[in-house]
Design a protein that fits this description.
The chain is mainly beta and 710 residues long.
Length: 710
């Protein structure tokens, strides 16, 4: 595909020329009555500017402090734009990432609210909001995507600006901003299993000159599920104000409130020998009083000063609070021959308070005939998490072939309470040097301080206390432009992850370090409307704490994991009206040094060796069928598994197709009908153990979205 696009870029017949925009300064002409007869008329000079066409599926990255194109970024990356989210009728982050190159979504509940995301075998454990990182310990509860302009994914370690974390990827959610023009957008969505959803997105300047402006987004959604009993209701409100003190200084403030109430389903159990159940996909194991109720409150402020030459100084602060009530009756044992399984009951609440700040300067400078760039900054974040839990105990049995959901709710008193406080501070710097016209060198580093302390609130006893001081995180890259629109790159990226483990000597084990070597090629075509990329990577996660073979009460820092493979992606507008996003990933993860039972085995067996994703859409621009659009996509993965001891639970390879038909009545009104899992493939989307957490994928479903834009 890359070779085809190279050929297209050199063929004027295949490329659409940008529409030239002419602008002219008005020259004062002599009045008609004073102009001499037949005197020549001198016209003002005309400057022709080639305007880049609107990019439907191609976007820039702000995850690296500033704005870079994907081609300028020396790591594999993806951007999911607002138009692509709307085109696919995506209404949650997990569904958007399922169609993103190299991402494995691990669901933890039937309603799709609790999810973990994995890239290159590692959990994405830090989610950034407008470039500010937040810890995501535990399963992630995402805000509704209606409030975001785009989703950015940077594959590989992101320790330079993030600090501690896993080495697989960084995820950045970029919010919608207030604009200096009036807008009003709305959407109504209807779908299978009583899906009803309404969105409203509006904004306007509040002063005549547009220096003060506002924007707000509201969402209401209610739905049942293909699983019996499961349902959810979601409400979101987002608002922001922006004020320009002058042409170069802007203050932005805002907040988000999201409330969700749902019935949680923790998946199916399985047989002790690894066989998965063959039951209707609607089967729900649990009670009708199961509940999952996450509440999110988010407030933020950003002050930005734009500098001459494209630089900026930016300070941001954000407070994010998440409270979750989790009350459940769930499977907790292997299925007997007659279909009986144990049911465990319990309740758990968590209150996670996050405060994050970041200050940086992005400073372009000229030297030796070239423009270079320097970034310097520091960030600090604090997370205080309080957990209250009952004792989880087996209270009932249930037959998986004829489940009875009318289980009596037992008393669930809280018996355990703990608090975990994590603080991180770091300073970072990066320089981009344009050494020669085709050659750019990138070098950076970060020094981090990290501390975590856990307490049992009932006894007041500190149960864990460990720290990391002065951890260095380097980054190096080289980018070489072999053609005007094609670049080769190679990069080394690093990250660290603290470990709460000690050696027999009593010394705390130093953090794990994830370091990655990546090389690849990136190309832009058709006036930057299409981006194609190919990457080879090898990631090594070392210094892992594993059991001390001579004293199993302690650990030794000798574990090593390797993740390697390649991936390719093509995204953009191939022809006027034809948008495409397609990707393929091949990844192999392995324990290189570990315990006897693990060494040589797959580190992340739930990550398929092969995965492919495709979404494409074509809209007819003229003729009798003007306004009609057709689209479709697929998600295909090879087999995957989970292993508990010597027992393996295998999920078979599957391919899921989707299709769409839409119609744009005019520039304001449109509708599209999407059919997911077109062939009604029955497959396991996730496998885990004999106890629970085995999930069927969603059956065939229909979604109709009506949209208005003014």
């Amino acid at each position: 595909m890359l070779a085809t696009l190279v050929a297209m870029s050199g063929n004027p017949a295949m490329a659409e020329d940008a529409t030239p925009i002419a602008s002219a300064e008005t020259a004062a002409e002599p009045a008609a009555e004073t102009r001499e007869p037949n005197a020549p008329v001198t016209l003002a000079p005309v400057q022709v500017i080639a305007e880049k066409p609107a990019d439907a599926y191609v976007g820039d990255l702000s995850i690296g402090k500033g704005s870079l194109t994907i081609r300028e970024t020396p790591q594999s990356a993806s951007v999911i734009t607002r138009e692509r989210l709307d085109d696919q009728n995506v209404v949650n982050i997990a569904d958007a990432l399922k169609f993103t190159t190299g991402v494995t979504v691990q669901r933890f509940d039937g309603a799709g609210l609790f999810n973990n995301y994995y890239v290159r075998g590692y959990q994405v454990d830090s989610i950034q909001l407008d470039g500010l990182p937040f810890g995501s310990a535990g399963n992630i509860v995402d805000n509704d995507p209606a409030m975001y302009e785009r989703i950015e994914l940077l594959r590989g370690p992101g320790g330079l600006f993030q600090g501690a974390g896993e080495p697989g990827a960084s995820l950045n959610l970029v919010r919608k901003r207030a604009q200096d023009k009036t807008l009003l957008n709305g959407a109504a969505t209807f779908g299978s299993w009583n899906l009803y959803r309404a969105e409203l997105d509006g904004g306007a300047p509040l002063t005549e000159d547009g220096s003060l402006r506002a924007r707000g987004v509201a969402v209401y959604e209610t739905r049942d599920s293909y699983q019996d009993v499961v349902n959810s209701q979601k409400k979101l409100g987002y608002g922001t104000l922006e004020y320009d003190f002058d042409k170069a200084t802007t203050l932005s403030v805002g907040g988000v409130i999201q409330r969700v109430d749902s019935v949680i389903n923790q998946g199916l159990p399985a047989y002790a020998d690894g066989r998965l159940l063959d039951v209707p996909r609607s089967t729900f194991i649990g009670a009708d009083w199961n509940e999952l109720a996450p509440k999110t409150t988010d407030v933020f402020a950003e002050l930005e000063r734009r500098l001459a030459g494209g630089g900026e100084i930016k300070f941001a602060v954000r407070r994010l609070d998440r409270k979750v009530l989790y009350k459940v009756a769930r499977a907790n044992g292997a299925v007997d021959a007659n279909g009986s399984t144990a049911i465990q009951t319990g309740v758990y609440t968590t209150d996670r308070e996050n405060l994050s700040t970041d200050l940086y300067a992005n400073l372009p400078f000229d030297f030796a005939g070239h423009t270079h760039n320097l970034i310097v900054g520091a960030n600090w974040r604090d997370q205080d998490q309080t957990n209250d839990s009952s004792t989880f105990a087996n209270s009932y049995t249930q037959n998986v072939f004829e489940p009875d959901h009318a289980l009596a709710e037992p008393p669930l008193p809280y018996t355990m309470q703990d608090d975990v406080k994590t603080t991180q501070f770091g300073g970072y710097s990066q320089v981009r040097l344009r050494v020669l016209d085709p050659l750019t060198l990138v070098a950076g580093g970060r020094i981090s301080w990290w501390e975590s302390r856990s307490r049992n609130l009932a006894t007041g006893r500190t149960t864990s206390d460990y720290a990391v001081d002065g951890q260095l995180t380097p980054f190096f890259a080289v980018i070489y432009d072999v053609l005007e629109q094609v670049s080769l790159y190679a990069s080394y990226a690093d990250i660290f992850q603290p470990q709460n483990a000690a050696q027999a000597s009593g010394e705390q084990i130093k953090p794990r370090t994830g370091n990655q070597y990546e090389t690849g090629i990136k190309a832009e075509f058709l006036n930057q409307r299409v981006i194609a990329q190919f990457a080879l990577f090898r990631l090594q996660d070392q210094n892992r704490a594993i059991e001390d073979p001579t004293n199993n009460m302690f650990s030794v820092p000798s574990g090593k994991v390797r993740s390697q493979g390649f991936e390719t992606e093509v995204t953009g507008m191939l022809l006027p009206g034809w948008n495409l996003s397609a990707g393929y990933t091949n990844v192999d993860t392995q324990y290189r040094v570990s315990t006897v039972t693990q060494e040589g085995q797959s580190f992340a067996p739930f990550t398929p060796r092969h995965s492919a994703n495709l979404w494409t859409r074509y809209q007819i621009a003229n003729g009798l069928l003007q306004g009609l659009s057709m689209g479709g996509g697929l998600r295909a993965v090879s087999s995957f598994y989970s292993q508990v001891g010597t027992v393996r639970f295998v999920g078979d390879a599957y391919t899921v197709l989707s299709t769409q038909l839409g119609y744009e009545l005019n520039s304001h009104w449109s509708a599209n009908l999407t059919v997911n899992n077109l062939l009604d493939e029955k497959y396991y989307e996730k496998v885990s153990s004999s106890f629970r957490q085995n999930f069927y994928g969603e059956p065939r479903s229909f979604t109709l979205a009506l949209r208005a834009k003014f």
